[in-house]
C-alpha cells in the first residue's frame, strides 16, 4: 500500500515536472518567435538590418562606438533604431528639450522601473513623480551642505592615506601587477558605504578581502541588468514567479543586501543616529519606514560606486598616455601647496586648496568627456512629441541621449574632439564650465546627478596625489576601455611627498 502510494506520488511529480518545463520551454519559444516576427515585420532599413544581423560587429567593437559613428553621420545628430523603438540623440538642443524643457514628458518610465524594481525598490534612482520629488528635495538639502562635503572629503582622504597608498606602496615594492580598475572599485565601494551607511566594508585592505556585501551587490546589479536582455519581459517575470535560474540567484543576492541593510538600520537605531554624519542617519531623522530607508541607501550605493571607479580608471589611464598633462597637474599642485600659508607638512591639497586647482579640474572634466561612466541614458515618452531638430517621438517609445557619442561629435566639440586636451576648459588659466546639455555626463536639468561635486572632489583628491611613473602592460593599441591594469615601475614618490619637498622628474 505504502509503495503504491510512493509510486503514485513520484509519477505525479514526474508528470508535473514534464508539464511545467514543457510549458516554460514552449512559452519562451513562443515569446522569441513573436519577438523575431515583430522585428522582421517592423523594419528593413539599413540600420535595423545591421542591428538584427549584427553585421555592425565587423567594423566596431561595441554598440556605443557604432551608434557614435551613426550619430556623427546623421545630419541632425539623431538616429532611430526602429526595431528597438529607440530614438538616440547627440544633439545638445534635443538633450535640453528632453531633460529640462519638456522634463514631464520624459520620465524614466515603467519598463526600467520594473527591471530594477526588486533591487532598488522605490529609491530615488528608480522612481518618477511625487516619490522622486520628495527624495530629491531631501537629498538635495543633505548633499548640498558644506558640512557633508567636508565629511565626504574626510572619508576619501582617510581611505587614500590608510588604504590606497599602503596598497600601492606594497605592490610597487614587490613589483607586482595590479588591476587598477578593481582597486578603484574597492576604493569607491568603501567610500560610498562609509558615506551612505557609516559602515566600512574594508574592501581595500592590503589582503584585498572579499566583501559579502560587495559580492551580493555586484551579482544583484548584474542580474537585474540582464533582465533587460530578455526577448520579452514576460520571460524574466515568469522565471521570477517560479523562482528559477538567474531569478532565483537574484532573489538570494537581494536578500543578502536587504539583510545587511536591515542590520545597519537596526544598529543605527540602537546606537542613536542624531550625532552621526552618514546619509542614512540624516534620512532617519525624517523617515521611519525601514524599507524606504533601505531603498534610498541602495540607490546611493548604485549611484556612487561604479561611476566613480570607472571615472578614476579612465582618468589615470589617460594620464599615463599624456605625461604632459601629468606634469602640468604636478606643477599646479606644487604651486597650490607651496603658496599656502599653512606650513604644516602636507601630503595632499586640502579641501579648500583643491578648489584652486583649475588645471586638475579641467583634466578630470576632459577625461569624463571622452569616457563618461554612464555612456547613455534612456527615458520613455509620455505623449507624442517633436524634438527641436524636428524628429518625431511617438508616445511610449524610448528616447536616449548619448554622452559618449556627444564627446566625439565635431559639431559639438570642434575638429579636435577626439583629443585629450584639458586646455579646452580653461580661459586665462581658470576653469570655465560648459553647458551641461552639451556635456550631460552627470545628466542635466531637473535630475542632474546629486553627487557631482562629491564625485569630482574625490577624484581630484586621487588625481592630486598622482605623481608616479606608471607602465601599462597594454599599450595604446588596445581598446581604451579594455586596458585595466598597470604596474608601478618604482615606488610612487607621492607616498613620501610633503609641502617642503619638490616633485622629482621621472
Ligand atoms: C563620476 C561619478 C558620477 C557620475 C558620472 C554620475 C552620473 C550620474 C548620471 C548620468 C545620473 C542620471 C542617471 C539616471 O537618471 O538614470 C546620476 C544620478 C544620480 N547620481 Fe550620480 N554620478 C556620479 C557619482 C555620484 C555619486 C558619488 C553620488 C552619491 C554620493 C551620486 C548620486 C546620484 C543620485 C542620487 C542620482 C539620482 C538623481 C535623481 O534621479 O534625481 N552620483 N548620476
From TrEMBL:
It comes from Hibiscus sabdariffa. Residues 466-506 are annotated as: Disordered. Pfam families: p450. This is Cytochrome P450. Its cofactor is heme. Belongs to the cytochrome P450 family. PANTHER family: CYTOCHROME P450. SUPFAM superfamilies: Cytochrome P450. The chain crosses the membrane at residues 12-37. The lineage of its organism: Eukaryota, Viridiplantae, Streptophyta, Embryophyta, Tracheophyta.
